[in-house]
Records
---
Amino acid sequence: MKKEPILSARNLTKTYTNGVTALKGVNLDVYPGEFLVIIGLSGSGKSTLLRCLNRLHEPTSGEIYYRQARIDTLKGRAVRNFRRKIGMIFQQFNLIPRHSVFSNVMMGRLGSTPTWRSLLGWYSAADQTQALEYLKLVGISEKAKVRADQLSGGQQQRVAIARALTQNPEILLADEPVASLDPATCHTVMDYLRKVNQTLGITIVCNLHFLSLVREYGTRVIALRGGEVVFEGSPKDITEEWFTQIYGEGAKEVHVN
Amino acid sequence: MVKERKKSMSTKPLNGKLILFDTGFFTLSAAISLYSGLLVCNALGWTQFSFEQEYAVRNMQSIALAVAFIAFCMSGLTLVFQATGRTTLGDFLFASPARKQVIADIPFFRSFWGLHLFTTLILTFIVSFEVTEVSFMELLDPDGLAGAGRLFANLAHPNFELLPTAIAEVIETIFIAFLGTILAIPIAFLVAFAAAKNIMTHPAAFGVYVVLRTALNLARSVEPLIWAIIFTVWVGVGPFAGMLALLIHSIASLTKQYSEIIEGVSEGPIEGIRSTGANTTQVLWYAVVPQVILPYIAFTIYRWDINVRMATVIGLVGGGGIGTMLIKYQGQAMWREVGCIILVIAAVVWLMDTASAYIREALK
């Protein structure tokens, strides 16, 4: 039985103002509860695709649907309301370095808090309790009062996950979440993402570089090359042949243990 | 007509900046050459030509016409040089990276632009002696030397009876500078966002950005001394006029510096906050402000430091404080009193300078 997609893109193209075309007619369906991995070379359009999905970047043409409702035409407040349901984590974590871990996690509530209250940092008690719970979930609650820039890379990424969770999202977009982490930390962060996926039932769309990680964590894979989808299927179906097709001749697979 | 000629000689696209610059520089060179030529002729007794300012004022129209004529000729010359591929100074400054590489390989003293720049600088140097009426006779005149000696002797023996008044006045100056800076901060803080290119990306917002930047540049290009003169007429001579003058200048300067800091912030945190569904105000407050706050404080302290020095100068034209006191005693040639005032100013400026450098270092 095929489920209805929670998020889909039809014929998505994106051309930047400098003339670079990052996406050329991408079609994509994200199904509820899956751990979808997007692979491809740097510059293949992975990051652009994720940023178009939550409208951080404006697609040049094409359509995006969230639960059958078009969201590429939304404007202003409607876009922000939509974004609240889509958490995002980044390669460089994108925390606010001078703020405490707890304050960073609370920022996940910005979209649901009136502006004047959020500027003063007056979040509701329920929100604060929930933020602490998510900090516990990613195993970092004892660092709540520490400044974010005092944390290691892996810890910062876990704070970023907690911030995204505080939005109570239905989907979590992860843009190369472990690309700037060492191999050991890399697995910790990926394990937390899987935990989020399996225990909270949050759909995950994740850009990754390492095929070994893709095979271990992904439930489905999409490969991009030059802004086009060149592969779609199960992680175990990525054969040597496909690998060359995605990454080009002469590419060799690297394993992360 | 010009374009057609250009096309027939070369297929290179016209570089507007380059041509404008070269025309200007050639015109300057030509005018300087003509002027120094006249000077030489005068020195040799061939011509009797007066260079009095009065003469220049009377003949301003013909001088302007002559300059326009030279400029016209020089624009032609520029195009000829362009077409024949000479490395002019404009070429050196504005050429494409590839062309710059070629130009950089020619040694300075063997290139056309190098010789041209060198000749023009030498001629300008010579002419400037004539124009500024440099005279060693005046510098070494016995009467003048004696006067200067007397003045220095008096300055070196300051009248310390004036010290309490001078200190009171310098405190007024510091307050003028303080209020001028403090009041500018909230205004500059808010306006800076609207004057930052990376914030004003929307086409309509970009229009606001351009208008704002132009207005700020205009306000900044008017010296605080001029603002002080304007405000002494508006609100009367005194510290209030001085404070207003500094306020206007501080708003313009701080806004520019703040907005440049905003333009330098990293995009990551902005993206991070935007992805949570935050609105623009929240993004500015949580992603931009934490990144800019320390440089803001550093620049603001530096601005206060500058303002204390400026407040002194502004006092000379009636902006109150120690400057007004200084000009009063200077007018009566009471050099021993002036000496005391100068000491007080020097002490305060030195203190402010050291303190602000110290704080800024600590903030890094």
---
Amino acid sequence: MTRPLVIGANVYDYGTDAGAWRAPGEDPLRIFGADFWRDAARTAEDAGIHAIFLADTPGLASNPAIRPSRLLEPLAALATVAAETEHLGIISTVSSSTNDPVELARRLLTVSAFSGSRFGWNVVTGVTGPAVPDFGYDSDPGREERYARAEEFVEAYSGFVDAVRDDTDYVHEGEYFGDSIRRHDLGVDPAIRALLPDVAPLIVQAGGSPRGRQLAAASAEAVFAAETVKETAAENAADLRQRAAELGRPAPLVLPGIHLVVGSTEEEAERRFELVHERGPDGYVLKRFTAMFGIDGSRLDLDAPAEDEIRRLSGDPSAAPIGFRKAIAAYGAAGNLTVRELLRYFAGFGHQLFVGSPERLVDIMTDWVDAGAADGFNLLFDTNPWGLREFAEHVTPVLRKRGLLAAPGDQPFTRWMREARR
Amino acid sequence: MTRLLRVDDATLAGFAVRAGEGRASRELLGAELDAAADVLLLGDLDGPGPDRTAAAGALLAITRRVVVVPIIGERQHPINLARTLATLSNLHARRVGVAGSSATVLALLSRLFETWPLDAIVGDTETGVYVDDTRIVRIADPAFPSIGGPLTLPVDVDDKPVTVLLSPSGSAEPGVDVVWDGAAVPVWDTVVALGAGTDAVGARAAFGLGPSAPFATGTPAFAGAGRLDQV
């Protein structure tokens, strides 16, 4: 019997597909209204989804003229999601490269308290585009420095939460941060302290580089993994569990992403994928693909085996997530796909793409969990709220019928997730 | 007459606990807040305090009419702050302002609100043009030369979040909409009787202010390359 799944839904604004904001029947300004978030919140909670997650970048990562993405500040949007629901978790990406650990700890404790201890922090390290000088950098600090800062950031953050819990002075001296704060000046009210440990945000991590995986093993309670091949996913999950065990920690819950286009039938899902995907800007997917791999697009042979082309042309762009790159390359190699075939699967993103019926989706989910490749999934709909509603209508009944939707009961989301770890 | 109340950090923490108790508790709290005042100033006037923009987001989500003005907390980066306020302004019908003791920081925030005017959004699903990107700018601020945005989302430049300088004296100037003596603002200290509030209005209307007067200068943020090269 497959153990029940943890299901998260990434509802970052319009959706994962570059054509999402142009989806038929949708208002292109919909994400700016609180009703969009209230509706998404209710739909997700009613569908048995356990958390809404918002990915984020701290500045405009790209020109929104033809593809808007990740516009709203996620904590502000999630406050509306929390207000509308009773049990649904809220998880936000916040970058360690653009914040102060003490300030962020105070802020996240407040967010979590108002939500009823339902908040998770997805720790990322990115700072890109016009935001680089805004946050005091001369240029992209690079992966190594970003991770060095992130490791110390999490240590300082955790030290601050510990000081609040123990009602002691906070002292941290490191390469990037240094602080000494008397216990009376911690700035966290005793009423909030009394909510610990549940009010402490769940720590989530998504990095796929070796350093990112080690950070996850050392500090994360859940991991948003980028995986496309079950066997590789199982190996990586086992590696993560082993790393955590060596550090004496429970293993983080492993939640691979699925870029999801579901319909009541295979044909309906395929039509839906085409309908939204064809509305993306011409050349967008190829541009994203070449940027992710650091490839000069003019040298790429679309009809050659993807594995060979990636090996021949790929660089190591610092700002491009390693996890996505490895996941997409692995899928191309496993299926012996041409570049053109892999581009359709990539679809401009980087997670596992699924286009099909609810029964087949749930079969795949079950297979992955049984193989040790996942404890649940982080769903990314091609378009919102359409994709979320389709999931609720078609997939939730199948999950419920098979007894695969875990029911957290009345305990706070953070506690339920922590206790669900292995 | 605008009814002002300041909610200190201890009371805000109490609100957080109540909000965390469930939807019914949140609805009652929201009704109390809507009835108690037209404008709520959030936070202690000194000391580090918790972040009040997070509280502002939570309180705006459970209220329908009251305007919420968080006092800037210690250490929060102006870009993160401006982005949060811009998001709350869009989501909650302009019912948000921001207060602080530094006129230069408030002016920076006010300039950042002009990096992407809301009416630059075209939203043409047929042609595939979401926004007129020539109107998205990186602003120049004399006090913070390295910070210029643009923010990740637009702001209604006629109805920007109100900036409140907390000072015993002084007057409005570009970037500072209102000057308050924070110590003179009555403090929320009891549960108030529920009553019928007036209809929701944005922060500027609640303060009796006219449309925002744009004052930032900036340069296009996405000049010099094709749009596809900037995805």
